Amino acid sequence: MTDATLHPYRHAIDHPDRPAFVVADTGAVLTYRALDEASNRAAQLFRSLGLRPGDRIGLLLRNGPDFPIAYWGAQRAGLMTAPLSTHLKPEEAAYILKDCNARVLVTGRDVGDSAVALAAAHASGELGVDAVFDVCAPPMAGAQNWQDALAAQPATPIDDETAGYYLVYSSGTTGRPKGIILPFTPGPIGQLGQTEQASIARLQGFDPLVTFNGAPLYHAAPLVSMIVTHRAGGTAVVLRKFGAEAALRAIDQWKVKSAQFVPTMFVRMLALPDEVRARYDVTSLEMVVHAAAPCPVDVKRRMMDWFGPIIHEYYSGSEAVGQCYITPEEWLRKPGSVGRAVWGILHICDDSGDEVPTGEDGLVYFESDRPFEYLNDPEKTAKSRHPRHPTWIALGDIGHVDADGYLFLTDRKDFMIISGGVNIYPQAAENRLIDHPDVADAAVIGIPDPEYGEGVLGIVQPAPGVEAGPALERRLIDHCRAAISNIACPRTIRFVEELPRLPTGKLAKHELRRRFSTVDA
């Protein structure tokens, strides 16, 4: 789909002083005029460095105005933008830059040690990029000043504007991240990818369009939210760093119409004292969307009681091969479901690739005519395909479909615990633990067990003011056993100050397995 009106430059002509991008907790505001001029300068800069359509750049940035400036500059120059997590270690970030053959890195001293180390590696010729830019002043050793570099370029469009796109990397919760190459052919800068088309259709009815996303822009969903908000001429409100009260304040201050969250954000907002929640008016919200991780049913019910029946949910992946969607009205009829397929055809299959009966758990496949590829990893690409149907693609989730076609997810296949020959999916126990008032966050993993192969271990972050210890452990185990089978419940619980969650809400379970691999269940 190509539409010349669906690009920020059009809104810079029609509404130059409208805020395009707001960082609510710092007060930074970028208008459409400023975004247009700065992104033109960025595109000119990339061309001056010899970058051509199809080349790649890396963005290692915290949420701030330089993120959309760099992104839209690259988009106008036909470049593929690879956003990097600010939590990456220098070696991990360097791996991604090398893996995608990035020509330029835009980062900032405020990211921390990884940015400093990458700039130093560039100075010594070890990073493999042509240039590193620092959005902070003074620039780090080995980096050029981003603002000075932009100021030296004209604020007019380059002669050969071509649509670029994004190249996101998987979150790496179970191993090294992989680049996800989505189907996209460079063309006019108003050209939309399929994910953009699906997302923008849900935003075009809001007037004025003001969106909120509290997660980092280096993740696919927040990035797409920003992109489609700018394509539709709206105001994208973000936070430098998510805080439960800061999110409510931003919604109130900017009269947000559409907001996107992950379930852990719901949990943190619900944990606020009633008097804090009452300070902020959230009645401007007309639609709330959540995704990225499972949401306990009770948590979602409590959010609907608070925000109203405006909470929508979708299930998809950065691979963009299909999507399920469920409205609030549907979810109240089908609590726990992630909806029916709105693009792609669902298939639920056993380990042999045979489709299972309605209601039976299996590996979730989307039948898609837009297959992606994992960059430089044909083996992983092939593994995602069905053994007999190459257009059926699995994202690694286990679930079942009911008689009405609604999908219910059970867990990630990689997280399955095999104890005494029984397959155990930890999501049910995790949801049960998180439902307890003494728990702030919880995870359930499998650990080595000499008798059963794997044992079930619970890892709990107690709620503020709750004392960790044997008494709490006993209460939580009894709480689990009151609702789910004993075999799926933790036999032992360990307590931590904080669980390793990504900003998307996903648990970094490989870290937990590494840390607790020698614990007796």
From TrEMBL:
Residues 430-506 form the AMP-binding enzyme C-terminal domain. Pfam families: AMP-binding, AMP-binding_C. Keywords: Ligase. This is AMP-binding protein. Belongs to the ATP-dependent AMP-binding enzyme family. PANTHER family: ACYL-COA SYNTHETASE, MEDIUM-CHAIN ACYL-COA LIGASE ACSF2, MITOCHONDRIAL. Residues 11-368 form the AMP-dependent synthetase/ligase domain.
